[in-house]
Amino acid sequence: MSEYEFDTLAVRAGIARSQFNEHSEALYLTSSFVFDNAAQAAARFSGADEGNVYARFTNPTVTAMQQRLAALEGGEACVATASGMSAILSLAMATLQAGDHVVASMGLFGATQQLFGTILAKFGIETTFVPATDPDAYRAAIKARTRLFFIETPSNPLTEVIDIAAVAEIAHACGAILAVDNCFCTPALQRPLEMGADVVVHSATKYLDGQGRVLGGAVVGKKVIVDEVLKFLRTAGPSISPFNAWVILKGLETLRIRMEAQSATAIELARWLEQQAGVERVYYPGLASHPQHELAMRQQKSGGAIVSFEVAGGREGAWRVVDSTRMISITANLGDAKTTITHPASTTHGRISAEARAAAGITEGLLRIAVGLEAVEDLRADLARGLAG
């Protein structure tokens, strides 16, 4: 369906109707599939026959979600996983081995930092974290066995914007692949594969679902890489459930509409926050004050729906703002239709060291807002109480 526009792909890609000719995508809640005979069973298990085998790695509902997301990202293939973190783990285990080296941007989501810096290190995989927006730092970090560059743009929670094309060129020059976490923008606002990335990873839990209902993840990109991820998933089993895939599949239908609406509210909120006396700094790519504003406007269709800001008074001041809200949800999740607020230093990045937080710019006064679909007037009023001191 490559001839269709984004909005058409969002509601039509991946549809394969059953004998009942249903209009909505079917939900196949089954753990296994029946074969016509022993020869067919053998052919399915060997891969000679591409039919369904076992829901750990083949399911029509999951396939539909994978095909739709691949179409929206412009990727050759997609593998859906149980969560965003399982997508990153699956990619790493499929492409790396003991002795290999990873170059990763600083300021990654806390769990991603833990995965590369602690868990993979136990298996002999070394990671060098570099300043996110410095191309020379990526180049200088290369080692003889550098196999993977991993970046998150915009970053969580400071919304640093990385030049994808520049990092892709650096990665490819040393024979490595570039993976981009596209969670904050989604393909509605940014398509990293078109800028040279080899694969994109998603926490589908966030904007792809869009209503905070289920967990899911995905790896999208070049088929040769995605096929290796599928081999790992088939054996290790960090699989998405068909129900979760179905929910995300339906969420994709409204992805662009939601992202544009939430981004429009986010820029209004960010501009308002810049004018508040209790706010020391606002981080939002759509603002002219953002250090990578020009790059963001070239790579992204808008500034996105994440607004982070620092308040006076450190943790005490930040917690006062959080605790003063009456409508905004106090939760670390993002990408929901409901606006959420969190204090990264004590939640999403609370498990990494104080030194790592400092290096990533995660201060005690930092707050992250994931803007939902409420009226901007109500969001301003909810934040104003805590900012007034």
TrEMBL record:
One Pfam family named in its UniProt record: Cys_Met_Meta_PP
EC identifiers of the protein: 2.5.1.-
Keywords from the named record: Amino-acid biosynthesis, Methionine biosynthesis, Pyridoxal phosphate, Transferase
GO biological process terms held by the UniProt record: 'de novo' L-methionine biosynthetic process; homocysteine biosynthetic process; transsulfuration
Reactions catalysed according to its record: O-succinyl-L-homoserine + hydrogen sulfide = L-homocysteine + succinate
Required cofactor names: pyridoxal 5'-phosphate
The keyword Coiled coil is annotated on this UniProt entry: no
Enzyme class: transferase
Keyword Transferase: yes
PTM annotation (N6-(pyridoxal phosphate)lysine): residues: K206
Single GO term (MF): carbon-sulfur lyase activity
Superkingdom assignment: Bacteria
Protein family according to the UniProt entry: Belongs to the trans-sulfuration enzymes family. MetZ subfamily.
Pathway: Amino-acid biosynthesis; L-methionine biosynthesis via de novo pathway; L-homocysteine from O-succinyl-L-homoserine: step 1/1
InterPro entries for the chain: Cys/Met-Metab_PyrdxlP-dep_enz (IPR000277), Cys_met_metab_PP (IPR054542), O-succ-hSer_sulfhydrylase (IPR006234), PyrdxlP-dep_Trfase (IPR015424), PyrdxlP-dep_Trfase_major (IPR015421), PyrdxlP-dep_Trfase_small (IPR015422)
The protein's role, per its UniProt record: Catalyzes the formation of L-homocysteine from O-succinyl-L-homoserine (OSHS) and hydrogen sulfide.
Cross-referenced Gene3D superfamilies: Aspartate Aminotransferase, domain 1, Type I PLP-dependent aspartate aminotransferase-like (Major domain)
Xref: PANTHER family: CYSTATHIONINE GAMMA-LYASE, TRANS-SULFURATION ENZYME FAMILY MEMBER
Protein's gene: metZ
Quaternary structure, from the entry: Homotetramer.
Protein name per Swiss-Prot or TrEMBL: O-succinylhomoserine sulfhydrylase
GO CC annotation: cytoplasm
